[in-house]
Specification:
Blueprint: E1 6-23, E2 26-40, H1 43-47, H2 51-55, E3 56-57, E4 64-65, E5 71-72, E6 84-85, E7 94-96, E8 100-108, E9 117-131, E10 136-145, H3 149-156, E11 161-168, H4 182-185, H5 190-193
Antiparallel strand pairs: 1-2, 1-11, 2-10, 3-6, 4-5, 7-9, 8-9, 8-11, 9-10
């Protein structure tokens, strides 16, 4: 399953909230940043499979009434197959019970990599989606991280501005395969236990070349 990611996209920083944390006598500073961006409705397939088909269908050219009883103009995107919103009387935005952890967040603050702010172990939560006619969706979510004091001030000043960010999902851990050699995985034969000879009677009285004479 594809994971939610953002690749150097312009987003709006709706709010920045400092979250002090206390662990015994030690005090740590965390930061909650709420983002908003606009994209096409295929993002719903990533956030909650089945949601796009539940709320969108192929455009039939007819306008539908919104929650105020007025017709909505549908300007369908040509790159999408489902652009007309179904259930137009459902209030927006929709809240999603979705939380993700282990992300990397990059603020692209300048033209060089040295000017970027890079944060690790970022948690995502408080997802909501505003489904609009024509196949456009406004996505809102919050990030939780622990930036250092050297960059916290820069993040504080981003509130109510637009900035490019990237969100990189954590890598999926591949299951470790335990490979055993063929020799180590099968049982040894009697010949191998006797010293590796192909003769199954090696080391026994039957292997001697003498003749037994009964008295």
């Amino acid at each position: 399953m594809k994971m939610f990611e953002i690749d150097q996209k312009l987003v709006k920083v709706r709010s920045v909230t400092n979250v002090p944390e206390f662990k015994g006598e030690k005090r740590e500073h965390a930061c909650s940043v709420k983002f908003e961006f606009q994209t096409d409705n295929t993002v719903l397939d990533v956030l909650e499979p089945g949601l796009r088909k539940a709320f969108y269908e192929k455009d039939n050219g007819k306008s539908q009434a919104n929650d105020e009883g007025q017709g909505e103009l549908s300007l369908p995107r040509q790159d999408l197959d489902l652009t007309q919103r179904k259930l137009p009387l459902v209030n927006m935005p929709l809240k999603l019970k979705k939380e993700m952890a282990g992300y990397r967040l990059v603020y692209h603050c300048g033209a060089t990599e040295a000017s970027q702010i890079k944060l690790a172990e970022v948690a995502l939560s408080d997802f909501s989606v505003d489904l609009q006619p024509g196949g456009t969706v406004v996505v809102m979510f919050s990030t939780y991280s622990k930036p250092g004091a050297d960059v916290q001030g820069r993040i504080d000043h981003m509130a109510q501005t637009e900035i490019e960010i990237s969100l990189i999902a954590p890598e999926e851990k591949q299951p470790e395969l335990k490979l055993e050699s063929a020799k180590g995985s099968r049982k040894k034969t009697a010949a191998e236990k006797a010293g590796g000879s192909e003769d199954p009677f090696a080391g026994s009285d039957l292997a001697q070349d003498d003749t037994r004479i009964e008295a």
